[in-house]
Amino acid sequence: MPELPEVETTRRGIAPHIEGEIIQNLVVRESRLRWPVSEGLVSRIQGQCIKDIYRRGKYLVFTTPVGSFIWHLGMSGSMQIVETGTEPQKHDHIDLVMEKGTILRYNDPRRFGCLLWAGADPNQHSLIASLGCEPLEPGFNGRYLYARSRNRKISVKSFIMDGKVVVGVGNIYASESLYAAGIRPTRAAGRISLARYAVLAEKISQILKQAIRAGGTTLSDFTQADGRPGYFSQVLQVYGREAQPCARCGCLIKNRVIGQRASYYCPVCQT
DNA sequence: ATGCGGACCTGTTAGC
DNA sequence: TGCTAACAGGTCCGCA
Q1: Would you tell me how many other CB atoms lie within 10 Å of the CB of residue A257?
Q2: Which of A1, A42, A122, A177 could form a disulfide bond with A118, CB atoms 3.0-4.6 angstroms apart?
Q3: Comparing C-alpha atoms, which of A80, A65, A58, A59 is closest to residue A23?
Q4: How far apart, in Å, do the first and last CA atoms of chain A sit?
Q5: Strand B-proximal residues, CB under 7 Å?
Q6: Cβ of A88 < 7 Å from strand C?
């Protein structure tokens, strides 16, 4: 479910309720996420103040004076702020209970997410340490993509979805960015010019920013922290639009599987 | 090192 | 209407 805009939307939604507050408890109703939620985590963070919540790729990093923990939403995870006494629903696996009574509630039907202790320096954590460039930070540009892609034979779509290259670009925004840049998703990453990568990098950050402004993309079940859906789904040009006309040329959008993921593109506008 | 397929889960939808 | 198969926003791991 959540790609970078959805994670960032989640962060912005929860931060005002959580930052600067003291953790009273962590209630784990289901610990079997992608990796088991460690039993020691509760005692580690109980009574600690959350100094800051920031995003690295699709990870949310919660900072406390004694160390940090990282939280990933996986494919189907979402977070909501609820008041004490709100009855947990199905798949509401974890509550982060704050002393002032606010609860950060984590729901994740498929349990592909994770909640892990990351110690004093989260950048040292193996899941974070190997991550590539942030697409909304200055180091991300056409030259970077060009340099990283030399001699790579994978498709450009798989390339920009590789978190070791650039973080946060998931299946929806990969299709959308390549459409906006006019690049065929099947094209080999190593055979794309610097000029085209400059356009692609620009489109990626532009589309991600636009999606954040819209509160992310809701396909079926993503919700912002206040329960509202994301509105970027209304703006999608190709994702999920197989056999519908391309907005630019009118010819029909195709869907081909690349790297085991559905990939949408216009056979005329993207070369 | 790179690229590929499989794996982890549940829920929803499409097709017979 | 009911059963079954395919598919879904992520990404790590093991193998060639």
Answers
A1: 8
A2: A122
A3: A65
A4: 28
A5: A 32, 34, 76, 90-91, 109-112, 151-155, 158, 189-190, 220, 259-260
A6: no
